[in-house]
Amino acid sequence: MYCLKCGQIIDPKCTFCANCGYQIGITQNQNDDAPNTGFAVLGFFIPIVGLILYLVFESKQPLKAKSAGKGALIGFISGIVVSIIATILMMVGSFAFMDKMVSIYDREYSNSDNIFGDKTEEILEKYLDVNIGKLEKYLDVNIGKFAIEEEKYFEKTKLSVTVKNKGEKKKTFTIEIEAVDKNGARLETDILFAQDLNAGQSMSLDAFTSSWPEKIGKLENATFQVLEISMY
Questions:
Q1: Phi first, then psi: what are they for 224, rounded to 5°?
Q2: Distance from the CA of 155 to the CA of which of 17, 65, 183, 211 falls in 20 to 30 A?
Q3: What is the DSSP-derived secondary structure letter of residue 223?
Q4: How many domains, the chain?
């Protein structure tokens, strides 16, 4: 049997431990107490169970409790170490993935003429904004007259704009229109959206809609022109 206090092997017939002097009370539980590999393994894989076993057996069978406690402690520390390593690996993998994506982007768009050959224009049209001059073959923009409409209690402005998708595929267009005075100075800008415009389809839009007197006065004699167009 083992001493309940120091764990030293003692003669079952002894009343006191020869190592530490602890008084021995001979019981069945004490005779069964010994380091337990099963408790240690269980505590390692399920630390919370190992902690419970330690608390339950600490007073009755300290050696078994010690095995469970050691297993739980080692399992808990191992879990923390594994979590830290996994986090580091995930961060390294994320940075590597981002670096790879940046490299692909740089390779595709910085040297698109060499890589994509005849498909360069198609790719640029799909992913990038296209300038106004190039979009003339895709979008027809017709700016109508600027009108001041008399309402019951106020005046309201409206610039009629008609757009038409001249391409062969459904596209979404963003059209920015500017109002300039007789000296070419910009007065106002407005942005119109022609969403999901089918091939050959037209759409009527209203720009510079306002009922504020100060804006009406500025825009009444303005000249309107397309400033920028984007296609998606």
A1: -115, 140
A2: 183
A3: E
A4: 2
Written as six digits, the tokens of 189 are 């800008």
Residues in a beta bridge with 7: none
Report residue 84 CA to chain centroid gap.
Answer: 21
Residue 160 covered by a domain: yes
CA dihedral 26, 28, 4, 60 (to 10 degrees): -130
- Tell me the residue length of the chain: 232
The label of the residue with tokens 């498909």 reads 119
CA distances from 176 to 19, 27, 132 (A): 93, 93, 10
Q: How far is residue 163's CA from residue 135's CA, in Å, rounded to a whole number?
A: 12
- Within 13 A of 214's CA, how many CA atoms are on the CB side? 2
DSSP state of 168: S
Structural domain containing residue 58: 33-77
- Considering the domain architecture, whether residues 151 and 226 belong to the same structural domain is answered as yes
pLDDT score recorded for residue 31: 52
Q: Write out pLDDT tens, residues 186-230.
A: 988 999 999 999 999 999 999 988 767 777 778 888 999 998 888
Q: What is the pLDDT of residues 15-59, one digit of tens each?
A: 778 888 777 654 444 556 678 888 888 778 888 888 888 888 887
Claim: this prediction has a pTM higher than 0.90: no
Distance set, CA 32 to CA 17, 22, 28, 40 (Å)? 17, 18, 6, 16
